[in-house]
Amino acid sequence: MNGLRVGIIGAGGIAGVHIAGWQQLGAQVRIYSRSGAAGLGQRYGITEASSLAGLLDGVDVISILTPTSTHHDYALAAIAAGKDVMCEKPLAENAARAAAMANAAAMANAAAAANVLLFPAHVVRFFPEYLQAKETLQAPAAPAPGRLTLHRSSAAPAAGSWFFDESRGGGIIFDQMIHDLDQARWLAGEVVQLEATQTPPSVAGVVPRPVTARVRLTHANGAISELRGEWGPPGLPFSTHLRVQDAEGAELFRWPRGRQAGAGRNAAGDYLPAHTPATSPYTRQIADFAQSRASGARPGVSSLDGVMAVALAEAATASRTTGAAVGFSAAAVEALLDLPASGAGHGHG
Questions:
Q1: Which residue ranges form the domains of the chain, and what is each CATH number?
Q2: pLDDT value at position 258?
């Protein structure tokens, strides 16, 4: 990957782990942001572009790390310039705009004007424990999952930030719980119904702080996934929990085994897991993206996966708002996309 030129858009809290991951793999990194780029430039020794056009002109790959409502426009600009795109989750603030991003990449490929990969940054797929759960369920003669329990907790983002504005970030279901919505679908298959609650409720489109949300998924195969997400008080360290049982209740997989692994390594208030650049799941994610763009092989997360996760978050938000269960059609989401039927190569699967 030495010599690969990467352009980062955005200088928020997640930017550091992305920059460190790219540098770990030998890439040259530039950054563009409306604010905060100078500090990251000094910290990581990277150059700052003065404009989006200047950034696009000098890189091979774009990584979008900005507030959710800006992803669509930045992605379309990068795709139009023929750049491969990694975009932080969620791809967009609704499924229609997420699908437009995926379709723009597919159209560029079909027109042979570019060879564009759109990679949704669902980093939890690259955590070793979740990969182990996937491998366990895919093992020969493994029982089908019957019940999944997924919890995710961290300190809430800073008060007043865009994360709490549902028109910009979507709130806890869209921003935090989308990881476990994606995991539940990845591990147990397509979803046919969702039920969601949030405590306390949002007021005038603003999410309270702290806040807890729960989502119950019914999968097409009859499995049930119970999800809980928490943006907690300032001292709450990052933690996750995953348990998978078969239809009779026998445990197939559990993480952590006993006390939360890693809790002692995370400082109070951390909202990301403790890691080094060499062992970080963000670095593994970036390596998968780079390998896919170089070889044309299917990446670990496809554009369809990214759009489906947004659609699930959108449906969960509708259930939370109405207080009623919401039906879900994976086929209807797929119909939004103009992607190759094979699902192979460049992430259009």
A1: 5-123+290-301 (3.40.50.720), 127-275+303-327 (3.30.360.10)
A2: 58
